[in-house]
Automatic annotation (TrEMBL):
Keywords: Membrane, Transmembrane, Transmembrane helix. Signal peptide: none annotated. It comes from the Eukaryota. This is MET7A protein. The chain crosses the membrane at residues 7-29.
Length: 246
């Protein structure tokens, strides 16, 4: 019953998004999305999401200074930096390495760098979360990843890379949207929107149960909290927030 309704509604949504499906078929959508559409729309979504998640992020990053290395420095790597909306939450003097698979956020990224001159920006790497080979093993004190695990190709490979680059005793911080409760309307709509949403929003998957991946990864200590951050007019609401220690 529900399965049939999901398929019918998916077809209706695909019809509405037909021009995008055609552009994708012609190989035009992906480059346009990467260069123009996604950086633009993400900037707008981030403004709304940042307002709603600000208190959660302040709480999340409060203990970042506890993970300073033996030298007293805090070396931080961010996966999927995007426009740099997390910079404001990092402690003064923190050394930041930015990585993103998409290099087209430069405008908003440099704007946020100028705003947050309390940080030292080490370098910017164009890299996927699954392949951080440019970063030496056990070389950073903290890794941060917010609203990124929904769109990586492999969550488990990304978490393996996180654990590789972290020094022993270092921490991985996350805030991610996840699948809703299976019996809920929210989950029904997540399933309906899934294929079209993934195409339009650069590979973003609505129904990942990321807490399971985190529990399977080899963290010595893991704190996960399930919270609600609703983005109006979207099927996004349940989130997880927390950190894991290597």
């Amino acid at each position: 019953e529900a399965g049939v309704s999901v398929l019918l509604l998916r077809a209706c949504l695909a019809l509405l998004a037909l021009p995008i499906y055609l552009l994708s078929f012609l190989g035009v959508w992906e480059p346009f999305c990467r260069k123009v559409f996604f950086p633009f729309i993400l900037d707008k979504i981030c403004i709304v999401h940042d307002k709603k998640s600000k208190k959660h992020k302040q709480e999340l990053f409060r203990n970042l200074p506890d993970f300073r290395g033996p030298s007293g420095e805090l070396k931080l790597l961010e996966i999927g930096t995007g426009s740099g909306s997390n910079f404001q939450f990092y402690p003064s003097g923190c050394k930041v390495t930015c990585t993103d698979i998409n290099p087209n956020f430069q405008q908003s990224l440099s704007r946020n760098m100028k705003k947050n001159q309390h940080l030292h920006y080490e370098r910017f790497l164009v890299a996927a979360g699954e392949d951080l080979h440019q970063v030496p093993s056990s070389s950073v004190d903290a890794v941060v990843c917010t609203l990124v695990l929904c769109s990586v190709h492999s969550v488990s490979s990304t978490l393996r890379e996180v654990l590789r680059v972290l020094r022993p005793g270092g921490a991985f911080y996350f805030l991610e949207h996840v699948a809703a409760e299976h019996s809920s309307w929210k989950y029904f709509w997540q399933q309906v929107c899934y294929p079209t949403w993934k195409l339009v929003f650069a590979g973003c998957c609505l129904t990942r149960e990321l807490w399971k991946n985190l529990e399977e990864a080899k963290f010595s200590e893991l704190k996960i909290q399930h919270i609600s951050v609703a983005l109006p007019g979207t099927p996004i609401e349940p989130h997880i927030v927390g950190y894991g220690v290597k």
